[in-house]
Fold this protein.
Amino acid sequence: MLQFFEVTKKSPWFPQVKALYESAFPANERIPIKHLLDNKIKREFWAFFDRDTFCGFSNSISHSDITNIVYFAVEAELRSRGYGSQILQTIREKHPDSRIVVDIEVEEDSKDAEELERRNRRREFYSRNGFDAAPVEYHWQGEHYRLLSAGGTVTDKEFRDFWKEILKDIPGAKYP
């Protein structure tokens, strides 16, 4: 059973989380990590451990009955060992009445076979964990995304309204 702990700038595991964040997400898909730590948006930023081994992290935002997993990664050498599924299960248990959403890069936009394989594996992982395609696609920071949901679908309007509400007090913030 994984344990999880809040991530703060002072957390002893912060350097591991930051390193994984920077290695797991291309620069165009990241926001400055300081924004994942500030209080302007109420986020759940968790580091996951199997005993003393850092396994990964999740960063999610909840509003009303939607929880959006914004960032989620497992250490490369620990992938395919069930840790990702356990992390998703923990999030679902913490939000039993929420529709959980994640976004993935649209497979059809892959630039090469290796990238297409990565995107297909990611989609299959989420499918195995109960996520289905939602009727939402959007562009953000130069990338084309498709929304997946578990616990019920989320419409395009609900998703955009979610982000409008989350970002309403942040000047210049762009929502999907």
